[in-house]
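lol forgot to send this yesterday, sorry. struct tokens for the thing we talked abt
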């Protein structure tokens, strides 16, 4: 008996690769988005840090420039020594202008963390004096560390002319630790979000591809059922034809066997088409009022001549069902009973019994019997006692479920098993003035 369908088919590998590509695309989009967002955050934080440093430099330089005054024509700096603006960082330098020469440093703040050469400081002071407004520049101190310079001019009290500039020396590394912490947090957070996005993308792509997986599984099951079921009748027909070809005049002896194999193949094809219709939900159940007793009687009359004749107990019954599906289910129940149904010691005429009561069809046999607890196992594909495939009973169960019913099995008094197919009863129709059997389908095909 063939095993389950392999899980490494080319179609499955293609679907798996497609899922991985979708996951990779989702992850890549997330990475690009997070990278752009992180770059904007880092750039914004760096600019905000620079602006805050320049604002502090401008504030200190402006305070220092406002504290410089002239008295009797001489510059006075006594107000700078005790003010907090001239202590700490940024460092404050005051330069006084000289006619025809570079400005001269006349004051240095109490804290002097940077030893900046006189040239860059004088250049910023000249620029501020020339523009009569703040001037900025980047430079390096004597040890090579980068510094920022910002000059603010001050005026002579008597002449109201620009007399010099207060220069603030700032540290570009100020606040760098917080900036680096932010960058590290963004990198770690982006990495975690990328991993989460990859996992989420994999799950979402799997869910979005679930219909494709289900369609592929249905196709593989249908192909497996076809290969499993058709192998036996094809082998019988081929063997019979070869025997007939080798025996002069022996074709007539093998025709019944070939006919039975052809009939079996026809039943298999109809079962496979029915299973494919149920699994694909194509034209789901077309439920219409149906005379169940008449349909069962017709199916029993279609049994091969070599099969035992069942005894019928048919009570008039109307259900709402799909005639084609119910016909297949009843025929599979009969086929199962014929295969396994009559014990050797059972008297003739005490074999198959087919009963219709309300929405139930019961097929009883005199076989070895079935434990009701094994019914779920028997209705699985490729699981059946006595050499069967189990596809027939599995299809009966699917037809019952499609009609909001069920398949059950119970012990038959005196030995054997009785399989019961229960369907949904017909719903009473409002406003119907006709007889009880008006507009009923008999189920002919």
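and heres what i got for the seq, position by position
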């Amino acid at each position: 008996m063939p095993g389950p369908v392999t899980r490494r088919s080319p179609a499955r590998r293609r679907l798996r690769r497609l899922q991985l590509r979708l996951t990779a695309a989702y992850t890549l989009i997330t990475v690009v988005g997070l990278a752009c967002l992180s770059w904007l955050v880092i750039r914004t934080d760096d600019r905000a840090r620079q602006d805050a440093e320049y604002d502090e430099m401008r504030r200190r330089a402006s305070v220092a420039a406002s504290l410089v005054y002239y008295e009797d024509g001489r510059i006075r700096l006594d107000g700078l020594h005790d003010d907090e603006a001239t202590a700490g960082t940024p460092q404050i330098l005051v330069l006084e202008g000289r006619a025809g020469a570079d400005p001269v440093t006349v004051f240095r703040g109490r804290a002097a963390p940077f030893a900046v050469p006189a040239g860059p400081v004088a250049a910023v002071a000249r620029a501020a004096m020339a523009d009569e407004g703040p001037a900025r520049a980047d430079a390096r101190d004597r040890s090579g560390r980068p510094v920022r310079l910002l000059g603010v001019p001050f005026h002579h009290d008597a002449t109201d002319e620009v007399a010099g500039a207060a220069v603030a020396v700032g540290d570009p590394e100020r606040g760098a630790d917080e900036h680096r912490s932010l960058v590290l947090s963004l990198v770690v957070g982006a990495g975690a979000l990328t991993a989460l996005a990859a996992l989420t993308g994999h799950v979402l792509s799997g869910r979005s591809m679930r219909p494709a997986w289900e369609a592929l599984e249905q196709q593989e099951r249908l192909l497996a059922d076809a290969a499993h079921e058709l192998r036996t009748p094809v082998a019988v027909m081929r063997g019979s034809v070869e025997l007939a070809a080798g025996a002069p005049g022996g074709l007539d002896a093998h025709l019944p066997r070939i006919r039975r194999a052809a009939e079996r193949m026809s039943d298999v094809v109809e079962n496979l088409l029915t299973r494919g219709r149920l699994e694909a939900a194509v034209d789901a159940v077309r439920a219409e009022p149906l005379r169940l007793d008449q349909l069962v009687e017709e199916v029993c009359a279609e049994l091969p001549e070599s099969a035992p004749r069942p005894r019928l107990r048919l009570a008039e019954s109307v259900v709402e069902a799909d005639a084609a599906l119910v016909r297949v289910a009843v025929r599979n129940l009969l086929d199962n009973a014929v295969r396994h149904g009559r014990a050797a010691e059972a008297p003739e005429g005490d074999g198959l019994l087919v009963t219709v009561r309300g929405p139930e069809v019961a097929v009883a046999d005199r076989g070895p019997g079935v434990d009701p607890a094994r019914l779920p196992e028997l209705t699985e594909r490729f699981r059946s006692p006595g050499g069967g495939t189990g596809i027939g009973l599995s299809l009966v169960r699917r037809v019952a479920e499609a009609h909001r019913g069920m398949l059950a099995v119970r012990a038959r008094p005196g030995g054997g098993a009785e399989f019961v197919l229960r369907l949904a009863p017909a719903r009473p129709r409002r406003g119907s003035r006709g007889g009880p059997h008006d507009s009923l389908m008999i189920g002919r095909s």
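The longest helix spans residues 10-67. anyway ping me if u want another try
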